[in-house]
Write a structure and sequence with these properties.
Layout: E1 2-5, H1 12-24, E2 35-36, E3 45-46, H2 49-52, H3 55-67, E4 82-89, E5 92-100, H4 105-111, E6 114-118, H5 127-141, E7 147-151, H6 156-164, E8 168-173, E9 176-181
Length: 195
Amino acid sequence: MFELATPHPRFHRSFLAATDEFLAAGEEPYAGIPNLPPDRQFDGLSLTRAEMDDPGTFARYATWLAGLREPDSPRPANYVPSTVRWMADGDEYLGQISVRHELTELLLTWGGHIGYSVRPSARRRGIATAALRMILPTCAELGIDPVLVTCDPDNVGSRRAIEGNGGVYEDTRSGKRRYWVPANVGAPTVADTPA
């Protein structure tokens, strides 16, 4: 059954299989391997693909991702609090979707409130559309309505996911199409996996 789950160690092997798919497709930014240098408020978090093989290391990474929703969680200075959910079918990791709780100037222009990625083998199945629909109640709970979602102009699948959830095109800035999506308070709720 498709759900949005809190990052959890139960997805370890499937997450790494998805990581390998992203890397093989030349989509390293979506592979889920953190490379965050230290700054004035953050100790940094950089792992290699080999280090992610260790269950304990992966569990710590999943816990860190799940904790990003807290205002005082450790994160880089340019990161805002965010709710991270993993798209899943049982224990199979299908991708990630995140809600950024606030917008910086860069996010207003380029990144938006929501970012998502679907592993290559799970694409063209409506997963991004469903995940976006399922995360919108979280946006409403956070007082975000409407929700800014962006995509590359040539990403037809992402455009369809956004427009399929009521996204209204505003403009294109810095190479990103910008849409405003209503938070749809009546949409299905997000399923949380216990940490």
